[in-house]
Specification:
alpha+beta; 243 residues; 29% strand; Alpha-Beta Plaits; 9-stranded mixed beta sheet
Length: 243
């Protein structure tokens, strides 16, 4: 058996998330359906990130094993024919036999986009909060999250059990053409963690001391102390790191 790595990009708007679910259109389900058809065998994939309904990806990674003799470089073109317009395999390669897209990952990088105002073009890929916000105050709110912390206060219920201690490798806000975006990378993320950080940062940014307000939520370890969960359309999985 050979082990393959696929780099995958998708517009998550019409998908019920990454993970296969009976009777629902998911990215993993569509990918496995087309792989099984092209390779003429039952294929099961492993995804590096289990993105939720409506969440996008530029840098999702999937792995699978197959007995096919087809060269890896042929897969993107072969798969494109049967996949919808909202998902693409951007690269394919043969990997070491023990490569697992999820377990082999060392870090993931996400991006969340905020809009200054409603935008007909960007509305599928960014969120416009009801209240105006200040980018400098958002940056002040999140500057204390870098490093290793217990992120329980930003963890939604219902996710897979995993340690709440995450090592935030980098986090920061920057201006983009239609608003502000948050870039953050960590060794692992908790369920809805990025979206809860965004919602809480917005709430903290409207206080007299955004940094202290955000720090108080972090140290409380209580989700009830945080802000609202930002909607999914602003979130994108940008990169999975393996070394």
């Amino acid at each position: 058996m050979r082990t393959f790595r696929l780099d995958v990009a998708y517009d998550g708007t019409a998908f019920h998330g990454w993970q296969r679910q009976p009777g629902l259109r998911t990215v993993q389900g569509e990918l496995e359906r087309q792989l099984s058809e092209v390779l003429e065998e039952d294929v099961k994939t492993v995804g590096a990130g289990r993105t939720d309904t409506g969440v996008h990806a530029h840098g999702q990674v999937a792995s699978f094993q197959s007995a096919t003799r087809l060269p890896a470089r042929a897969l993107p073109h072969r798969l494109e024919r049967g996949l919808g317009d909202d998902v693409r395999v951007t690269a394919a390669s043969e990997a070491m036999s023990d490569f697992d897209a999820r377990r082999s990952a060392r870090a993931r990088r996400y991006r969340y986009r905020l809009l200054d105002a409603e935008d007909v073009l960007w509305g599928r890929f960014a969120w416009c909060p009801r209240q105006r916000f200040d980018g400098a105050a958002l940056a002040d709110a999140t500057r204390g999250l870098e490093g290793e912390h217990d992120f329980s206060a930003f963890r939604a219920s219902g996710g897979a059990p995993t340690s709440p201690r995450c090592h935030m490798l980098s986090i920061g806000w920057e201006r983009w053409e239609a608003g502000w975006r948050l870039e953050l990378a960590a060794d692992h993320f908790l369920y809805h963690m990025v979206r809860n950080i965004v919602g809480t940062a917005l709430a903290a940014s409207r206080t007299s001391d955004p940094h202290a307000a955000m720090r108080a939520v972090l140290e409380s370890r209580e989700r009830s102390r945080g802000g609202e969960t930002a909607p999914p359309q602003g979130l994108s999985l940008e990169e999975v790191r393996y070394a």
